Amino acid sequence: MRIALFVTCVNDTLYPRTGQAVVRLLHRLGHEVVFPPSQTCCGQMHYNSGYRREAQKLAVRFVETFADADVVLAPSGSCAAMVRDNYPRLGEPGSRLDRAVADLAPRVYDLSELLVDVLGVTDVGAYFPHTVAYHPTCHGLRLLKLGDRPYRLLSNVGGIDLRELEGATECCGFGGTFAVKNPDVSAAMGSDKARNAVATGAEVLCAVDNSCLMHIGGTLQRQRAGMKTLHLAEILASTEQEPATP
Amino acid sequence: MSPHRSTGRAPGAQPSSGERAAGHATFMGMPPFPEAAKSAVEDSQMRHNLRLATGTIRGKREAVVSELDDWPDLRQAGKAIKDRTLRHLDTYLEQLEEAVTAAGGTVHWAADADEANEIVTGLVQATGESDVVKVKSMATQEIELNEALAQAGITAYETDLAELIVQLSDDLPSHILVPAIHRNRAEIREIFRDRMASWGVPAPEELSDDPRALAEAARVHLRERFLNTKVAISGANFAVADTGSMVVLESEGNGRMCLTLPQTLISVVGIEKIVPTWSDLEVFLQLLPRSSTGERMNPYTSTWTGVTPGDGPQEFHVVLLDNGRTDVLADTVGRQALRCIRCSACLNTCPVYERTGGHAYGSVYPGPIGAILTPQLRGTASETEASLPYASSLCGACYEVCPVAIDIPEVLVHLREEVVARPGHRAEKAAMGAAGWLLNGEHRLDTAQRAASAARSLVPRRMPGPASAWTDTRDIPEVPEESFRSWWRREGAAEAPEHTGDGGDEDAQEGGRR
């Protein structure tokens, strides 16, 4: 299948490793990946902060960039949710944007949805002999309703030792601009999430969203907790021949 | 943490004319949420109390909600009934007025808090009494009725156990259902021992912090009040339009004492509390207890219709309160907040509320519902109200548990748009505008990414200015050597040459169309 990658601005700028892992993984599974270069950002930060007009412009760019794609992969739960859940609220009913969103949004997937629902695979042939705890990010959990898809993918990874995360469904406290507008509450939530992550004894905390991991990972790093964070794509891309290091 | 707290006033000590009634903490002049939240998250005792309490109620709710197969249907029914009622609110309100009047009650209309307080004060004064007992009520808290009555020399006695704790300690409520949730039992024992005597029957000498002993002390203290007070003031959880019946749900039976023993009963009811019929009410009698206290059925559900000769209060007044509600109704996105049945499930599940407690929200309506209701009822002109829509990480846990499906994150974002549309916030608007410009051009973004990568070794661990809000508690990620798009041009291009090639006009989109 030909998959259009919407890498997302955060991954593009700060976590290219995640994008590269996605490409490696999909190639390994025999699929073609295209990267429409006019893509930038889904507009989530602007939308969630009340800057609707800026978000609309970025939404227009997104739907034009990906209009002809069969499927779009956004390796970020919150960006995929932005398109599927919030884009329909952005255009005036019946407007060009509104119609374009109605057409495109159902074809936009998070990585675990793409693999499990579209490509019909739960064992991607990955190998990652490490202890891992999975944090289900809020938008993946409540907006995309990813359910057990990420767990099913992870549990089929060779050599993996999955640990259960206490308080898994609770928000890590990132929340986009919330992290800087309410830094004390955000830090309190982040420190609880970090504590629960460390308590699993796992080497790696995994999620489907690097922005949440930037917050949790930054907290762990500041606490010198010695625990790494990795996007799901990086674990699924890891093989015996090309292992990812935690 | 409750500013504007003054020393408690023993009842009977009448305020002299012109003197502001002492002994009543109010939410007036609370600092904006981030500031109030900062001191709250530093209070480890309160954090401990709240973690324990919200965790317990959360677990109970979860258990009794998950045992019902038809919960999603019930939730949809609750939402639909409320929406239909709100669409025809004018009709139902008139129907209610007619039915209450026919049953021997009197209906009063109050446009705002001042009008409602004036009506209630006048009604109490007409009875010649100077003491009233109160059933736990959010509407009367919202209009600060106790403070208004105190100005007129009338003492209002809270009879709900948690409200009693708050009143005795001259504190502020911090939760809709459990106003003293921020207190633990050791603190409650201290409050009872120190303060009960100046309000009535004192606490026993050797009061322990055993919940049973604390409840018994409150029981003895309140019993005298129930037997001697001739006027009661309540709110209502629901008002049934077709029969004119009021409905109050409570757990202690103290509310029922107030609703049955006094001669005069005055109920202050928000206009959104209406349900058309008893069969509509049935849905909410299932939704509310499970969502709020985590019980299958509510322990004390009191209903009354006007007056019944020789049985219960012989005079009944209902004050129908607007106080900003019709403005909320006019907002097509925000109006869903009027569906709220005050169950508190959103508070108990909210990770922000659990860490800040209720006082930080500067209103009797704290937590996620408060963050959308308070700015809508009061407007977003002041800094405190304008800060509330941002008191959320938009995690969506509140929407998930709401028994009437209020999409709180949607309304939060809607209110943020309202705040942004106001003057001010210049630095943020400039930054967001710049980010919007940068992100709306792939070449601009590419250039910025190259610049960041070139300067990656210069990024300091701790940033000055606004960025310190991040780096005070978190490390920032390392900027990579190159962006993904830069890598793709080299590596990705090698594998799929026909799909690469950046170029063309900044605003043209042909690069993306295939």
Automatic annotation (TrEMBL), chain A:
Residues 3-83, 132-216 form the Cysteine-rich domain. GO terms for cellular component: cytosol. InterPro entries: Cys_rich_dom. GO terms for molecular function: oxidoreductase activity. PANTHER family: LACTATE UTILIZATION PROTEIN A, UNCHARACTERIZED PROTEIN YKGE. This is Fe-S osidoreductase.
